[in-house]
Design brief:
By secondary structure, the chain is α/β, with parallel strands linked by helices. Helix content is about 30%, strand content about 20%. It is built from 7 helices and 10 strands. It has an 8-stranded parallel barrel. The protein has a two-stranded antiparallel sheet with strand order 9-10. Helix 1 (about 15-20) runs parallel beside helix 7. The structure holds the ligand O=C(O)c1ccccc1N[C@@H]1O[C@H](COP(=O)(O)O)[C@@H](O)[C@H]1O. The ligand O=C(O)c1ccccc1N[C@@H]1O[C@H](COP(=O)(O)O)[C@@H](O)[C@H]1O binds near residues 60, 132 and 156. It catalyses: N-(5-phospho-beta-D-ribosyl)anthranilate = 1-(2-carboxyphenylamino)-1-deoxy-D-ribulose 5-phosphate.
Length: about 200
């Protein structure tokens, strides 16, 4: 199965179009105010309205309340929710039927054999800002953990056009997710790096 690619930290329609033209499957919008890639829900909604179909639109949040999510839902049409904080299994379960991607950082405190109530897990590296650190995960450790996993997982954390093929070869993820590794500056994508990242993933 071809690996799915998410380009995260989109803050403008121009960058969204670059990622789509490059062949990305999903775009991520950081709705967490502590991030240098923060985009207000109203601004994200304007970008989403201009996007073509068949592109996943992911809202990235850190420890949201249900009412935060309901407010965003009233403004913008996201297709899935990437929860990047300390959200519990019970909280994720309560969000059904929304599609949840739950981000986890090592040390992983879940048993991989027990399905977590989320459409997918996203494995990221530790970060003081919850995400977008550019720090790489220990891929052999990821492999060991995911071998027993019973649901799709997305690899993230410090991926770049230069290392993504090695990361995929070592971990065999359902998808890959990149924010800082394809940027000119936080919140501004580098078109060449976006194209190169997607091209390498899709050439597999
Ligand atoms: O990118 C951010 O600023 C961010 C902030 C808060 C939560 C998640 C965030 N991004 C996610 O972090 C990972 C890894 O990013 P990077 O490629 O290492 O820069 C990725 O899943 C983003 O979706």
């Amino acid at each position: 199965m071809p690996v799915r690619v998410k380009i995260c930290g989109i803050t403008s329609l121009c960058d969204a179009r670059i990622a789509i033209e490059a062949g990305a499957d999903a775009l991520g919008f950081i709705l967490y105010p502590g991030s240098p890639r923060y985009v207000e829900a109203e601004a994200a909604a304007e970008i989403l309205e201009a996007l073509p179909p068949f592109v996943e639109r992911i809202a990235v949040l850190v420890n949201p309340t249900v009412s935060d999510m309901e407010r965003i839902e009233s403004l913008a049409g996201f297709s899935a929710w990437q929860l990047h904080g300390d959200e519990s299994a019970e909280f994720c379960s309560s969000l059904r039927p929304r599609k949840v991607i739950k981000a986890l950082r090592p040390p992983w405190r879940i048993a991989p054999e027990v399905a977590f109530p989320a459409a997918a897990l996203l494995l990221d590296s530790p970060s003081p800002l919850w995400g977008g650190s550019g720090n790489r995960l220990d891929w052999p450790l990821v492999r060991k953990f995911t071998e027993r996993l019973r649901q799709p997982f997305i690899l993230s954390g410090g991926l770049t056009p230069e290392n993504v093929l090695e990361a995929i070869a070592q971990t065999n993820p359902f998808g890959v997710d990149v924010a800082s590794g394809v940027e000119l500056a936080p919140g501004k994508k580098d078109p060449k790096r976006v194209w190169e990242f997607v091209r390498r993933c899709k050439a597999l």
